[in-house]
Structures are given as structure tokens and as C-alpha cells.
User: Fold Beta-1,4-galactosyltransferase from Camelus dromedarius.
Amino acid sequence: MVRFTWMMGALLPAGSMSRVQTLQERLFLVDLTLEEVQAENPKVHRGRYHPEECRASQRVAILIPHRNREKHLLYLLKHLHPFLQRQQLEYGVYIIHQENAMAGSKKFNRAKLLNVGYLEALKEENWDCFIFHDVDLVPENDLNLYKCEDQPKHLVVGRNSTGYRLRYSGYFGGVTALSREQFFKVNGFSNNYWGWGGEDDDLRLRVELHKMKIIRPLLAVGKYTMIFHKRDQGNEVNIERLGLTAYSTLLINGPQGLTQTREHQAVIGVHYLRMKLLHQVSQVWKTDGLSSCDYKLLSVDYNPLYINITVDFWSGP
Assistant:
């Protein structure tokens, strides 16, 4: 029998608080090896798991874009596999690499990699639900269900790096869940966001354009631990992304509405392109996304804990 504890308006599985309290202590095990994680998950085969006690209501694909963060990936796999198994999910874990970005010669394109993951995963299984998952976010609560609902779901309500608060009201990044049909309906992510930032705002606009409503779990449930790291080469912060609020002010009030700091001056000069992409979503979503995701598939490797997909993009910065 599963026992529950009441906390902050949510029922928590017995023992879940002790898991939360010790998560950060166990997260940074410097000597952790892939072989150890594999030994802890003997029922995961070629990146996939099927519960033995029941028939799962959904088949769930976990898509993780990855670049030069092997230790982060190892930490995530160590916690994610048991987490998913406790939820008795039938699932597969897909790690998607961008070849030139790994070498540092091209900017990282998280959104396009997730489009690739969706397309490639469907070649081997007609997955019902897709979880788009950053490699540096570890879920803290077993009640944060990795399954899809009748509306797109945003799972990262709070994380330790933001004091367990939502980053901003329209935030739709980090970890999101969309059904196969929902993601296809919006034509996936845009392929045009190179470097860090903007693609999750674009996806939110696509969702809203199709009259869907983003749902979230309770704050007590949707908590994550972020594995801190430096920004990768080729995945630098987009100065355009830093000025979303400032640019909104510019659009509404004109230049006089902006404080003329150096950052804002830079934003005025370069942010138009990024905001132009966001403001053109309603015109371009049909032609920019899954339907235009061109890539060269270099390899698909089946490791014990995940399926590794490596691709190259012909165009882009």
C-alpha cells in the first residue's frame, strides 16, 4: 500500500520529503559512473522500460537535448529512471546531440534538436506523450507526473535557482509535456533559434495561437533542483532574450519608455530580429517547425540507459 503525507495543499508519497532533503546531497557524487547507474536500473533495456505490475496508460518519450554535459546527464539519469519507474510509466529516454555544436563550431539549437527527437522517436514507437527535458533539471517530487493531459503541461513551477518561484508568468521552458497530437498541431518548435533563449516563448505562442491552455502542477509538486553550470561555448546567452521585457516596453511606449543602460541600448540594436521571429509566429508556424526540420542523421546508438541520436544541421550560425 502506498502511504501519503499532506503538505502545502498536496498529497506527497510517504518518504518523498526525505528524498527531497537528500537530493542535493546525492546529486553531486563526483565518483559516480555510468556503470553504477546501469547497475541500479537492471530493468531498463536499450533506453526503454515497461512496468511489470500494470499496463501503463501512456507511452512516454523523454527527449533531452545534450551538449558537453556528460556529468549532468549522468546525474539526471541516476534520478530520472527511478523517478519514472515509481510512476509506473512505459517510457524511452532519447538523448539528442548536435554534431558541430559538440565541437564548438556552431551555435546550439535546442529547439531543432527537440524536433529531431520527436521525429526520430516516432520512427520506432508511436509514443503518446513527449516530455521535452533540459539536462540540468532534476525533479524533486514523485507527484509531478510525467504524462500528458488534454492541454500542454509545463512542469517546472519552481526550482532552487529561482527560490522555487516561476521565472515569469509566461515561462514555458525547462520541462514541458505535450501529446503527440498537440506537438504536431503546432508544428513543433521553430528551427530558427540558435544559441540560448527564445524558443520556449515561441512554443508558448504557438500553443496559445491554437487556443490551448498551458497547465501546471501545484508549486509544492512542480519543484526541481537545477545542476549549476557555466554557459557552454556556442550556447551563449542571447542578448535579444535578455531584453524581452525592455522590448515590450519599447513596443508600447517607444524609446522614451526605456532606461538607456548599455544593455538596453544593445537590445534596441539587436533585439528586433528575435522579437520579429516571435511576432511572426502566426504567419510562419505552418512552414517553420517539424515540416521544415532538415538534418543529417549521423547515428542512432542504443545504450543501456538511453537512445543516443546524433545529427548535423546544414544551415545556421
Notes: The chain is about 35% helix and 20% strand.
